[in-house]
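Collaborator request, handled under Task 6.
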Amino acid sequence: MNFDNITKLKVIYFFKSLFFFSPIITLFYFSRGLDTFQVVSLEAILIISVLVSEIPTGILADKIGRKFCLISLILFYIVGNVWTIFAFSYIEFFIIEILFGIGIAFGSGAIEALVYDSLKYQGKEKQMSRVWGSINSYMLIASVIAVTIGGYIARSHNPKTFVILLWLYTFGAIIAFIISFFITETRHTREIEKETQLVLFKESTSHILKNKSLRRIIYLSLFTIPFAHIIMFLFQPYFLIAKVPNIFFGVAMAAGMILGALLMKYAYKIEEIFGMKKTIFLATIFPGLLYLAMAFVIGPAMSFIWYVLLKGVSSLRDPLFSQYQNDHIQSHNRATVLSVISMITAIYLAIMRLVIGKIANSNLILSFIIMGGIIVFGSVLFRIDEKCIRVSL
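Structure tokens returned to the collaborator:
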């Protein structure tokens, strides 16, 4: 097997995504003395940290290198995770979330830019959706394995087992960290070194504003986001309403991840069969229809099926949008442009998380109807076709 950049990134994504602690992280925080509000507030700190760090890290990726940002991402994960193991106060966890947020920001545009430019160097940039889907499928496969093993190891809910899971993740991240040093990066341009950070940011923002096709792709991507992070917290109370047996909670997560991994890996084949226009329309509207189905057709079996399909289908769009967006972005400031897009997305999600959370607190089913309605409306209003994908840099 050719151990090129793409293969290395697949291995890196696998080992950095072994989140063994996912099934018990809230219980871990409780065992360290945090209350529910403090646990939820840590997520808000993470989002704010990502927002503040998006543009600076994107500029660093373009000026210093995408490999540097990949290494930094994993290093922040390792440091934050080890500190988490030894942390016992809210202020410590507060600072740790800031570190995680900076780490996430380092990788948000840099890794995608690294992949696209690696393919472009080989003259294979049109394979971005295929390759990006394949790389992310390794992340989902790792998550399935980690959730299954982690849930079993910590089945007694003994705090000592929580720490074991955190150490297991750390070891996996260290392996990813070591491999990241073997990534080779092609220089996207020498001129980037002469540009100031402000000029680079202005260029990236201007590129988005002037490129009508790219803007429409961003609009469609933004307003059809399947709210994956919100449903992660809402599906458990929803399953209780639907009377889904507790034993199937983890099974549903694993099944959805497996379906998502397959769809991401073979998104390019689905596009070859149905064509670009139909594939992106189905990929964007289907999660919205599933939210509506979850709201109006509730029961142990059907609710289980709706959730698995939603979790799986929500992953289909990622490699497709990655291809379409990158085709409209120049190499020299690719990471900065992607970071600007990520920042816009993060702002939207931060607002919607508060809105949907407030609605769900009083009426869970209504929150599903609203999420479904927004997605369906966005997929119809901002539909794109082959004309929008044509590159005009």
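The cover message to the collaborator said: "The chain has a mean pLDDT of 83. The CA atoms of residues 196 and 209 lie 20 Å apart. Please let us know whether this matches your experimental observations."
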